[in-house]
Amino acid sequence: MNPKLIFTFFFSLMFSFALAQQDTLAKKWKYEPNFMVGFDVLNAGVGVFSDRKLFQAFVSSRISKKIHAVAEGGFEKNIYQKNGYDAAANGPFLKLGAFYMLANDKENVLNGFYAGGKLGGSFYTQEYKAVPVRGFGGSETSVAFPSSSQSSYWVEGTVGGRVQLFDSPFYIDVNMQPRYLVFSTTQEEIKPMIVPGFGKSSAKFNMGFSWNVAYHF
Prior knowledge:
The chain has 217 residues and is mainly β. The chain has one domain: Beta Barrel (Porin). The chain is built from two helices and ten strands; from the N terminus they run H-E-H-E-E-E-E-E-E-E-E-E. It has helices spanning 3-24, 41-46, and strands spanning 36-40, 53-62, 67-82, 85-104, 112-134, 140-164, 170-184, 194-195, 199-200, 205-216.
Protein backbone atom coordinates (compact mmCIF):
# COMPACT_ATOMS: atom_id res chain seq x y z
CA MET A 1 0.00 0.00 0.00
CA ASN A 2 1.53 3.30 -1.15
CA PRO A 3 1.27 5.96 1.59
CA LYS A 4 1.63 8.79 -0.94
CA LEU A 5 -1.49 7.58 -2.77
CA ILE A 6 -3.39 7.42 0.52
CA PHE A 7 -2.44 10.98 1.42
CA THR A 8 -3.27 12.24 -2.09
CA PHE A 9 -6.69 10.57 -2.06
CA PHE A 10 -7.46 11.82 1.44
CA PHE A 11 -6.66 15.46 0.77
CA SER A 12 -8.37 15.39 -2.64
CA LEU A 13 -11.50 14.10 -0.93
CA MET A 14 -11.26 16.75 1.79
CA PHE A 15 -10.74 19.52 -0.79
CA SER A 16 -13.74 18.39 -2.86
CA PHE A 17 -15.89 18.15 0.23
CA ALA A 18 -14.85 21.61 1.39
CA LEU A 19 -15.70 23.12 -2.02
CA ALA A 20 -19.10 21.43 -1.99
CA GLN A 21 -19.80 22.75 1.49
CA GLN A 22 -18.68 26.23 0.47
CA ASP A 23 -21.01 26.29 -2.55
CA THR A 24 -23.95 25.03 -0.50
CA LEU A 25 -23.50 27.47 2.36
CA ALA A 26 -22.20 30.44 0.38
CA LYS A 27 -25.29 32.50 1.08
CA LYS A 28 -25.34 31.66 4.77
CA TRP A 29 -21.67 31.52 5.67
CA LYS A 30 -18.61 33.52 4.73
CA TYR A 31 -15.24 32.31 5.89
CA GLU A 32 -13.24 34.77 7.94
CA PRO A 33 -9.68 34.01 9.14
CA ASN A 34 -9.88 32.43 12.58
CA PHE A 35 -7.48 30.15 14.41
CA MET A 36 -7.26 28.23 17.62
CA VAL A 37 -3.83 27.17 18.88
CA GLY A 38 -3.46 24.62 21.66
CA PHE A 39 -0.78 22.74 23.58
CA ASP A 40 -1.14 19.30 25.17
CA VAL A 41 -0.26 19.93 28.81
CA LEU A 42 -1.21 16.44 30.02
CA ASN A 43 1.32 14.38 28.07
CA ALA A 44 4.01 17.02 28.52
CA GLY A 45 3.49 16.84 32.28
CA VAL A 46 3.38 13.03 32.43
CA GLY A 47 6.70 12.92 30.56
CA VAL A 48 8.45 14.32 33.63
CA PHE A 49 7.78 11.04 35.44
CA SER A 50 8.02 8.50 32.58
CA ASP A 51 10.29 7.34 29.76
CA ARG A 52 7.90 8.74 27.18
CA LYS A 53 8.58 12.38 26.36
CA LEU A 54 5.73 13.71 24.23
CA PHE A 55 5.28 17.35 23.22
CA GLN A 56 2.47 18.17 20.81
CA ALA A 57 0.33 21.12 19.75
CA PHE A 58 -2.47 21.83 17.28
CA VAL A 59 -3.86 24.60 15.10
CA SER A 60 -7.50 24.51 13.99
CA SER A 61 -9.70 26.80 11.94
CA ARG A 62 -13.48 26.88 11.51
CA ILE A 63 -14.07 26.63 7.75
CA SER A 64 -17.86 26.26 7.82
CA LYS A 65 -20.62 26.36 10.42
CA LYS A 66 -19.83 22.83 11.59
CA ILE A 67 -16.51 21.82 10.02
CA HIS A 68 -13.07 22.63 11.42
CA ALA A 69 -9.74 21.89 9.73
CA VAL A 70 -6.97 20.84 12.10
CA ALA A 71 -3.21 20.29 11.97
CA GLU A 72 -1.22 18.69 14.79
CA GLY A 73 2.50 18.33 15.20
CA GLY A 74 5.06 17.49 17.81
CA PHE A 75 8.03 15.47 18.96
CA GLU A 76 8.21 12.17 20.85
CA LYS A 77 11.02 10.21 22.47
CA ASN A 78 10.39 6.79 24.00
CA ILE A 79 11.86 3.36 24.75
CA TYR A 80 10.50 -0.18 24.46
CA GLN A 81 11.77 -2.92 26.77
CA LYS A 82 9.60 -6.03 26.62
CA ASN A 83 9.77 -9.67 25.49
CA GLY A 84 13.51 -9.46 24.95
CA TYR A 85 13.36 -6.25 22.91
CA ASP A 86 15.29 -3.15 23.87
CA ALA A 87 14.47 -0.37 21.42
CA ALA A 88 14.43 3.42 21.37
CA ALA A 89 12.96 5.94 18.95
CA ASN A 90 12.64 9.69 18.67
CA GLY A 91 11.51 12.17 16.06
CA PRO A 92 8.85 14.63 14.85
CA PHE A 93 5.37 13.83 13.59
CA LEU A 94 2.56 15.63 11.75
CA LYS A 95 -1.19 14.97 11.53
CA LEU A 96 -3.71 16.67 9.20
CA GLY A 97 -7.47 16.32 9.10
CA ALA A 98 -10.83 17.79 10.07
CA PHE A 99 -13.63 17.35 12.56
CA TYR A 100 -17.37 17.99 12.64
CA MET A 101 -19.13 19.70 15.55
CA LEU A 102 -21.83 17.29 16.69
CA ALA A 103 -23.31 19.68 19.25
CA ASN A 104 -22.74 23.42 19.76
CA ASP A 105 -23.35 25.93 22.48
CA LYS A 106 -25.87 28.43 21.13
CA GLU A 107 -24.01 31.32 22.73
CA ASN A 108 -20.56 30.17 21.57
CA VAL A 109 -20.28 27.94 18.49
CA LEU A 110 -16.73 26.92 19.47
CA ASN A 111 -18.02 25.16 22.58
CA GLY A 112 -19.30 21.63 22.09
CA PHE A 113 -18.58 18.04 21.16
CA TYR A 114 -16.96 16.90 17.93
CA ALA A 115 -15.79 13.89 15.92
CA GLY A 116 -13.49 13.59 12.93
CA GLY A 117 -10.39 12.01 11.49
CA LYS A 118 -6.77 12.66 10.55
CA LEU A 119 -3.86 11.17 8.67
CA GLY A 120 -0.56 11.04 10.53
CA GLY A 121 3.06 10.60 9.51
CA SER A 122 6.34 10.41 11.39
CA PHE A 123 9.98 10.55 10.27
CA TYR A 124 12.14 9.34 13.11
CA THR A 125 15.36 7.70 14.26
CA GLN A 126 15.21 4.27 15.86
CA GLU A 127 17.80 1.99 17.46
CA TYR A 128 17.56 -1.67 18.42
CA LYS A 129 19.89 -2.39 21.33
CA ALA A 130 18.55 -5.95 21.59
CA VAL A 131 16.32 -8.06 19.34
CA PRO A 132 15.57 -11.65 20.47
CA VAL A 133 16.64 -14.44 18.09
CA ARG A 134 17.06 -18.20 18.37
CA GLY A 135 20.65 -19.34 18.62
CA PHE A 136 22.34 -22.69 18.14
CA GLY A 137 20.39 -25.61 19.61
CA GLY A 138 17.29 -23.49 20.18
CA SER A 139 18.93 -21.27 22.79
CA GLU A 140 17.73 -17.70 23.04
CA THR A 141 20.08 -14.82 22.35
CA SER A 142 19.83 -11.28 21.01
CA VAL A 143 21.40 -9.10 18.36
CA ALA A 144 21.77 -5.33 18.11
CA PHE A 145 21.30 -2.99 15.15
CA PRO A 146 22.64 0.56 14.69
CA SER A 147 20.35 3.57 14.62
CA SER A 148 18.55 4.21 11.35
CA SER A 149 16.04 6.65 9.85
CA GLN A 150 12.53 5.31 9.35
CA SER A 151 9.02 6.54 8.60
CA SER A 152 5.48 5.43 9.49
CA TYR A 153 1.96 6.47 8.51
CA TRP A 154 -1.40 5.93 10.19
CA VAL A 155 -5.05 6.98 10.26
CA GLU A 156 -6.83 8.06 13.39
CA GLY A 157 -10.24 9.13 14.53
CA THR A 158 -10.87 11.86 17.05
CA VAL A 159 -13.72 12.28 19.52
CA GLY A 160 -13.71 15.10 22.03
CA GLY A 161 -15.01 18.40 23.26
CA ARG A 162 -13.94 21.92 24.05
CA VAL A 163 -15.20 24.58 26.43
CA GLN A 164 -14.35 28.23 26.94
CA LEU A 165 -12.74 29.32 30.20
CA PHE A 166 -15.11 31.98 31.53
CA ASP A 167 -15.16 34.98 29.12
CA SER A 168 -11.51 34.67 28.12
CA PRO A 169 -10.06 33.63 24.73
CA PHE A 170 -8.74 30.45 26.39
CA TYR A 171 -10.33 27.01 25.96
CA ILE A 172 -9.93 23.50 27.35
CA ASP A 173 -9.88 20.90 24.56
CA VAL A 174 -9.96 17.20 25.48
CA ASN A 175 -10.04 14.34 22.97
CA MET A 176 -9.35 10.65 22.36
CA GLN A 177 -7.76 9.27 19.19
CA PRO A 178 -8.20 5.61 18.17
CA ARG A 179 -5.35 4.86 15.72
CA TYR A 180 -4.49 2.28 13.09
CA LEU A 181 -0.96 1.91 11.70
CA VAL A 182 -1.13 1.64 7.90
CA PHE A 183 2.48 1.47 6.76
CA SER A 184 6.01 1.52 8.19
CA THR A 185 9.45 1.20 6.71
CA THR A 186 11.53 -1.49 8.46
CA GLN A 187 15.11 -2.21 9.39
CA GLU A 188 16.13 -5.81 8.66
CA GLU A 189 12.39 -6.56 8.22
CA ILE A 190 11.76 -5.90 11.92
CA LYS A 191 8.52 -4.04 12.58
CA PRO A 192 8.93 -0.88 14.67
CA MET A 193 8.25 -1.13 18.38
CA ILE A 194 7.70 2.62 18.78
CA VAL A 195 6.42 5.24 16.34
CA PRO A 196 6.58 8.89 17.49
CA GLY A 197 3.10 10.39 17.44
CA PHE A 198 1.49 6.95 17.25
CA GLY A 199 2.89 5.33 20.38
CA LYS A 200 4.06 1.79 20.99
CA SER A 201 3.34 -0.09 17.78
CA SER A 202 3.79 -3.75 18.69
CA ALA A 203 0.11 -3.90 17.63
CA LYS A 204 -1.55 -2.14 14.69
CA PHE A 205 -4.14 -0.47 16.91
CA ASN A 206 -3.45 2.15 19.55
CA MET A 207 -5.32 4.77 21.55
CA GLY A 208 -4.18 8.32 22.21
CA PHE A 209 -5.47 10.94 24.62
CA SER A 210 -4.74 14.66 24.94
CA TRP A 211 -5.75 17.44 27.31
CA ASN A 212 -5.04 20.81 25.74
CA VAL A 213 -5.07 24.44 26.78
CA ALA A 214 -5.95 26.47 23.68
CA TYR A 215 -6.14 30.13 22.66
CA HIS A 216 -8.57 31.48 20.05
CA PHE A 217 -7.54 34.36 17.82
